[in-house]
């Protein structure tokens, strides 16, 4: 959430952020709720103070007039506190709808078509034979089966098998080897000309279920978000759409030590998305599915280090993709293609030969103190004061689309698929052949 003082002092800035992110938030209504909230807090505190005065006086001796006043104040206090709670709840829900303010370099635009391509790395491969898409390759090599998955679980599910299942495991080892090695991270920072602490990421296997109230506090669950989430009614829990959702609240209601920052986590988990609103989009294949595995990076930093951390996570994503020898482009997302909590978002899009275009495989979100304020995550400075941390989250590797890119970009004329060189040491073979 934003600071209510910042909102009140910068209403035009916040209104522009709402407009640019194409959200429906009535800021004037929020200000009105805040006015009511403040008034009720003052009135409630005044009643509480007077009741305390009466209680102290009655300790010295009975006074019928004061006893009568105390009873009336008690009734008034209950009424005001109930009204205050109702207003507080409305105020908090509206506060959560107000988006983070995009950084100055974020382009204003309506959707992904207005994202800004920052750079391209590698060249899309030219093939001297008729290429196959990953579905055909998967079927021919017996490494992907969506037909049987559909019988078992429905549309947009698949079985990765054999060599491709081994590649997923190899990718996991490869990525964690990079993220847990300070020398590798220092090399990444140096190449990107970034001054960041090369502190390794802590590997995590996080919960894949989350309580609704905690989900709301991450600022990743509003009424609009709910339609894309899987909810388990009997347990009153959601299945997460990314490991970020259970990583960032790990430290909710905590005050961290300044010297412990940055704290970096790398979590592997299954993610679940209903893909609501995607009717007719990528209905075939593993580009857009309901369940997939992903390694997510999450970091907690001091405010002055937040933007550099964001750029560092993007550089780390690039390093991983370059190691796989995949052509990609880096884009700076426009306001209309950013999530509500994000102040800045960058995506990596990898070349998919069968589609003849780049598709998103990674995202990196700089959230400033927006989540930390909602989750109450602070750090204590050397002078004893506290401040909210800044948070960043970013994809390290998302399995379905990366596996698709590996299959299609490494297909051979004989129908086999070459295993990326860096992964061969983990699985002991260099080619997936027809069995």
In brief:
With 435 residues, the protein is of the alpha+beta class.
Q: What does this entry look like structurally?
A:
With 435 residues, this protein is of the alpha+beta class. The protein has two domains: 4-97, Serine-tRNA synthetase, tRNA binding domain (Helix Hairpins), CATH 1.10.287.40; 112-432, BirA Bifunctional Protein, domain 2 (2-Layer Sandwich), CATH 3.30.930. 41% of the residues lie in helices and 21% in strands. The chain contains 14 helices and 18 strands. The chain has helices at 4-9, 11-20, 27-58, 64-97, 134-141, 146-153, 162-179, 182-191, 212-217, 244-247, 306-323, 370-375, 399-409, 421-427, and strands at 116-121, 144-145, 159-160, 202-204, 209-210, 230-232, 237-239, 254-257, 263-272, 291-301, 328-332, 344-352, 357-366, 377-380, 386-388, 390-398, 417-418, 431-432. The strands form five sheets. An eight-stranded mixed β-sheet has the order 1-11-12-13-16-10-9-4. A three-stranded antiparallel β-sheet has the order 5-7-6. It has a three-stranded mixed β-sheet with strand order 8-14-15. Strand 14 (377-380) and strand 15 (386-388) form a beta hairpin. Helix 7 (162-179) crosses helix 14. The longest helix has 34 residues, at 64-97.
